[in-house]
């Protein structure tokens, strides 16, 4: 565990980061580390009433800021979350067809999540809410429930005042509460909330009365079942529980079999997922299709590649095979071949790289996020700097969390006779289980690592129970000396690095990237001969690159009309033209004598873009082209062709 946390620290400090940015992060971390002790002493001296007041006020500020983000910074949701919400919207309106694309045939694990989301939509549609508002309420409710329940659990575990404020800072002063989990609905946050509830019930199980245990047991079973359905890798709880029972047995602590009841309920919840999934598929009318379905070995195969991440090329090759059984057979052979050819050094490199990816959080603001649809002008003026701060803030928070946990773990001497220590051991084993699952077996990506965040915070809470951080004068002097060295390094790095290294490469000025994607064989839309499709877009920053999704071999003429001047600029689907901020209209015209394919995203009640799509003067409020308007930090030599 200590080794994994250490790798996580270095991954977040150095992974895909310039030397200057790494040094800046290091300085900020050292400054925070130095002031942790005086801050902890200050907060620990405050009364519980004052701490509660601080928590309430801070939570309200977080909530208000979240409302501002949702109101003024809507993002373009793309990839899996968009496919899930589109199908859920369809189910909620009574359409149980699953053959619009091959996505769910390929990934049936998302059928249950889609069904649960459709139930929420059905409820909110009854109150005349649109899909955007429904998703905002759901994300806000799940995220803030997670934050409040986390704070409540940590206080009940430790009664450590500084830990409460520190946890509040972790969620409120970093991008945790304002980016991915707030703006995108997908399986990660529900699974994190589920794990938090599971371990909260376990931690306080012994203090419950007999009647309370009946209720908690029922809740535990249901939450485990739902979490496992939504996030299948929750199965790592099973070996973790078995290992804990073996530890108890080795220490002769299994005399009271009452302690096994919650663990047995968890096991029942995990194995009940199979009939539950069958029931959900029957309710939704979903039928699997082996011609498209991928076997489990697909994810294991991609996990054994050089980088250990999802590779579309591998999946494309698999889909050329006739069915799931054939794919599985060939995948198994490929996996064995890779393992036989891999040396011990190859395996260690692959595992180290996958672990580094799994524990890295530097890209949280871009997970399933195609950019802001049209952020305010004041934001876009400073967007590159703000974006760097947003990403760095969560890296700093996670590094500090890892450092604190390392400090506690190195001094921890678990006593299995204590229930809290037994659950702490289960937390550690479960955390290592998730890490091992995505490092040794499955494919990985940085988003997957978020599942262990509640587990790490709960461990810190248990290890901090009744303890205050104490730092000697000698330790503070040593920290000051190290800070001086770091600052000197920063100065030297600044002299050596070019200014361009300080700037991210591009800014998304306006975007609508939500689409099912042609790889899932979505039925194409067509634009008839001489017909026109248009959509208004607003650039609140200068633009020098425009991308419009157009099907291959489709012959369409594309214009960008400046609404203020009336001038039309002929552009390509991937255009390097310069445009000043202003109001524009994208115009796609079919000048051929036959229908042409066109990429359009359609929804029932989900507003995809700030302005509707117009087809031959017919307004489609919930349809949109797929486009991006970018500002790239490089010179564009091409000049616009004015019509």
UniProtKB/TrEMBL annotation:
- The answer to keyword Transmembrane helix applying to this record is yes
Residues that span the membrane, as ranges: 19-39, 51-73, 133-151, 189-206, 218-248, 260-280, 351-369, 381-403, 423-442, 448-467, 479-497
Record flagged with keyword Transmembrane: yes
**Coiled-coil intervals in this record?**
none
Tree of life domain: Bacteria
Keywords for the protein's UniProt record, in alphabetical order: Membrane, Transmembrane, Transmembrane helix
Under which name does UniProt file this protein?
Glycosyltransferase RgtA/B/C/D-like domain-containing protein
Ranked from the top, the taxonomy reads: Bacteria, Bacillati, Bacillota, Bacilli, Lactobacillales
């Amino acid at each position: 565990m200590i080794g994994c946390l250490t790798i996580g620290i270095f991954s977040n400090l150095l992974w895909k980061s310039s030397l200057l940015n790494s040094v800046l992060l290091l300085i900020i971390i050292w400054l925070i580390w130095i002031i942790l002790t005086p801050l902890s002493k200050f907060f620990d001296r405050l009364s519980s009433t004052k701490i509660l007041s601080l928590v309430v006020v801070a939570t309200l500020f977080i909530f208000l800021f979240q409302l501002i983000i949702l109101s003024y910074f809507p993002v373009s949701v793309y990839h899996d979350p968009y496919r899930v919400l589109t199908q859920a919207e369809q189910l909620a309106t009574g359409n149980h067809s699953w053959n619009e694309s091959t996505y769910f045939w390929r990934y049936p694990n998302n059928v249950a999540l889609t069904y649960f989301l459709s139930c929420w939509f059905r409820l909110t549609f009854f109150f005349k809410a649109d899909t955007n508002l429904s998703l905002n309420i759901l994300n806000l409710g799940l995220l803030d429930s997670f934050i409040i329940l986390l704070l409540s659990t940590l206080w009940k575990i430790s009664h450590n005042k500084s830990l409460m404020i520190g946890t509040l800072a972790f969620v409120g002063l970093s991008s945790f509460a304002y980016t991915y989990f707030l703006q995108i609905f997908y399986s990660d946050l529900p699974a994190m909330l589920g794990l938090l509830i599971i371990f909260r019930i376990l931690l306080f199980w012994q203090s419950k009365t007999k009647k309370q245990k009946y209720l908690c047991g029922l809740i535990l079973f249901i939450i485990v079942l739902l979490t496992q359905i939504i996030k299948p890798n929750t199965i790592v709880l099973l070996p973790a529980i078995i290992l804990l029972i073996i530890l108890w047995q080795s220490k002769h602590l299994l005399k009271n079999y009452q302690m096994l009841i919650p663990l047995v309920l968890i096991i029942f919840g995990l194995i009940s997922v199979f009939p539950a999934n069958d029931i959900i598929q029957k309710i939704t009318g979903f039928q699997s299709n082996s011609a498209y379905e991928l076997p489990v070995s697909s994810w294991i195969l991609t996990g054994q590649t050089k980088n250990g991440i999802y590779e579309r090329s591998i999946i494309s090759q698999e889909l050329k095979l006739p069915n799931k059984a054939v794919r599985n057979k060939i995948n198994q052979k490929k996996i064995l071949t890779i393992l036989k050819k891999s040396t011990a050094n190859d395996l260690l490199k692959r595992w180290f790289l996958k672990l580094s990816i799994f524990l890295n959080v530097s890209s949280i603001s871009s997970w399933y996020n195609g950019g802001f649809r049209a952020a305010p002008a004041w934001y876009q003026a400073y967007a590159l700097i703000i974006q760097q701060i947003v990403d760095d803030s969560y890296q700093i928070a996670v590094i500090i969390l890892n450092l604190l946990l390392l400090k506690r773990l190195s001094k921890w001497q678990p006593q299995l006779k204590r229930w809290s220590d037994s659950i702490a051991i289960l937390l550690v084993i479960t955390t290592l289980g998730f890490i091992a699952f995505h490092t040794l077996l499955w494919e990985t990506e940085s988003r997957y690592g978020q599942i262990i965040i509640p587990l790490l915070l709960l461990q810190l809470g248990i290890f901090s129970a009744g303890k205050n951080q104490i730092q000697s004068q000698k330790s503070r002097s040593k920290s000051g000396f190290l800070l001086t060295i770091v600052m000197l390094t920063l100065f030297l790095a600044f002299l050596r690095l070019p200014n361009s290294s300080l700037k991210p490469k591009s800014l998304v000025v306006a975007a609508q990237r939500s689409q099912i994607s042609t790889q899932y064989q979505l039925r194409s839309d067509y634009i008839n001969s001489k017909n026109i499709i248009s959509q208004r877009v607003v650039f609140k920053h200068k633009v020098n690159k425009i991308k419009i999704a157009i099907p291959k071999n489709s012959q369409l003429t594309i214009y960008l009309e400046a609404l203020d001047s009336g001038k039309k600029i002929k552009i390509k689907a991937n255009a390097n033209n310069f445009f000043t901020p202003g109001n524009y209209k994208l115009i796609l015209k079919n000048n051929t004598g036959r229908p042409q394919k066109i990429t359009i995203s359609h929804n029932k009640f989900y507003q995809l873009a700030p302005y509707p799509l117009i087809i031959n003067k017919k307004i489609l409020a919930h349809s949109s082209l797929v486009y991006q308007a970018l500002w790239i930090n490089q010179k564009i030599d091409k000049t616009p062709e004015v019509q």
